[in-house]
Amino acid sequence: MVAISMYLFAASVALVAVYLKYLYRRRRRDEPPMVPGGLIWGNCKEFGEHAVRFLHKSNKSCGDIFTIRLLHQYLTIVMDPHSYDRFTREKNFDFDPIQKQVNHNVFSFELINPRKMLKEAGKTVRGHYMNNIMQSFSKYLNETFADISTKDILGNLHEIPKGGKWCTSNLRVLTARTVFTSLFKTIFGNPRPEDTFEPMSVFENFEIYHKYFNYMWLGLPSSLFPAATKALKALVKQPCSSDLLSREDLSHYIRFSTEYMLNCNQAEAEIMGHNLVYLHVNYNTFRVSFWAMYFLLEHREAWVALSTEVQAAIDEKKQYCSNDEPVVFNLEDVDSLPILDSIVKETMRTTSGVFMVRAIAEDTEFEMENGQKYYLRKGDKVAMYPPALHKDPEIFEEPEQFKYDRFVDATFYKNGREVKNPVIAFGSLCPGKRLAITQSKWFLMCLVNMFDLELLEGQSTCPDSAYHGHEILPPKNDVEVRFRHKDSFQTLSFE
Ligand SMILES: *[C@@H]1O[C@H](CO)[C@@H](O)[C@H](O)[C@H]1NC(C)=O
Ligand SMILES: *[C@@H]1O[C@H](CO)[C@@H](O)[C@H](O)[C@H]1NC(C)=O
Torsions phi, psi of 285, nearest 5? Predict the structure, then answer.
């Protein structure tokens, strides 16, 4: 008996010691208020169940900056949208360790001198490079649009359905066969017939792998998730770097990153890991396109408004070219369509799950935009969670509703002042933001131009909030649609 009580006593002392050392702490003067949470897990449960609701509730009781605890990690959340610039410019808020953690835990590689590499590589997705990328993306997209009506998913040829015959498909599969396939080929060039590293099988493995993404970047070993391990094994079966570099249609980005990593004597496995990260980032374009397409189908008036806008832009251009030539659009043309722009922004607002987390490199006095100062501790993390802004009813009326024209000539206010960045779907650091948005826009233009598309009776879905932390949330379930080529349409081209 005595032995057992001694044992229990010792065990409780050990537990309390662990608690005091790792979990408990006292708030210091001028630190943000702490949100009360469970003894061991902190705020994990509420945060995981519905992050936006939890953060809004904490904002009510604590104000617009507060600290939460996820297991042993203290995380200060800045809720004030006006403090966005201060947050992104604070030099003690460091993204490097976060980026390292993702690369290491999820994709098993490390970048040597990541800042330099990302700065240089970032250039290859902007300016005139971006135009080149858009040209090849639009060429591949045109090919895939032809394929979806003439080939089944296994690549077997069919007659082109005539006389307005409909084809049916799952919407995600349809988006994968068009947008994802075009993104993939734009990045890695056209795969050869014998390649197993080809768009649709990579897509399927990515779908599996992404389910475990949050667990893995937090550092849980991938061996806990056999399905993920199997998917990763397939994903790293890639052509070697010399094979990729020999492809004329390889993207500038991958050419640059591969040569850079080879120069740093990095191993093939690390180059392949990095290729996957790049594909993972591009995957957001696929997700935005999926959602935009879904909302267009769910809100018929949005589809009609967009078709009308695109048709008017085509008619305007057609006055100046002969009938059998493609109508040519450039970047400015695509950017000048207000309804298209609003649909893409509204899509990102309703479906983004991005978490902008930074490590606090030094004890920092952080001044909010309203002049309030707070002390933040070295070793903690600090974050903004854009979905909580995107769903703030003071900024966006009826934030749960999709309103396709919400962003047409609109400005948004919080506490009486204009919010400069009302939609922050890709965080502040993504160099390919503009490219991703332009690719989604071009896809939608070509889609409404060439196809009739409808949701099948009774089909619906919504973003899966269990995946917060993913830049764009995946849907809870796929939906079935039917589509057919329009009898006649204008050929479009991007230059
Ligand atoms: C958070 O709290 C601040 C200060 O009390 C308030 O102005 C703001 O509207 C709140 N935000 C949300 C999303 O509730
Ligand atoms: C798109 O593909 C079709 C064949 O499916 C072709 O006739 C057309 O010229 C292509 N358009 C462009 C702009 O490449």
Answer: -65, -40
Whether the CB-CB separation of 386 and 424 falls below 8 Å is answered with yes
Region 40-47: mean pLDDT is: 87
How high is the pLDDT of residue 344?
98
What six digits make up the tokens of 472? 């764009």
- Give me the amino acid identity at 474: P
What's residue 20's pLDDT?
A: 59
- How far apart CA 22 and CA 487 sit, in angstroms, is 67
Query: For residue 441, what pLDDT is reported?
Result: 98
CB-CB contact of 292 with 347 (8 Å): yes
Gap between the Cα atoms of 288 and 478, Å rounded: 14
Ligand nearest to the CA of 147: 2
Q: Is 80 in the pocket of ligand 1 (CB under 6 A)?
A: no
Considering every ligand atom shown, identify the ligand nearest to the alpha carbon of residue 83 and give its number.
1
Whole-structure pTM value: 0.91
Which tops the pLDDT comparison, 405 or 9?
Answer: 405
Per residue in 70-124, pLDDT (tens digit) is 888 899 999 999 999 999 999 999 988 888 888 887 777 787 877 787 788 788 8
Instruction: Give domain limits for the chain.
Output: 1-85+355-384
The residues, ordered by sequence, that sit 6+ positions from 58 with a Cβ below 8 Å of its Cβ are: 35, 66, 68, 77
Angle between helices 300-318 and 338-351 (to 10 degrees): 150
Closest CA to 184 of 70, 297, 281, 80: 281
- Ligand 1 centroid to Cα of residue 399, in Å, is 15
Two tokens at 288? 């935005």
381 annotated to bind ligand: yes
Which helix (H) or strand (E) element contains residue 172? Answer: helix 171-175
* CA 7 to ligand 2 center in whole angstroms: 78
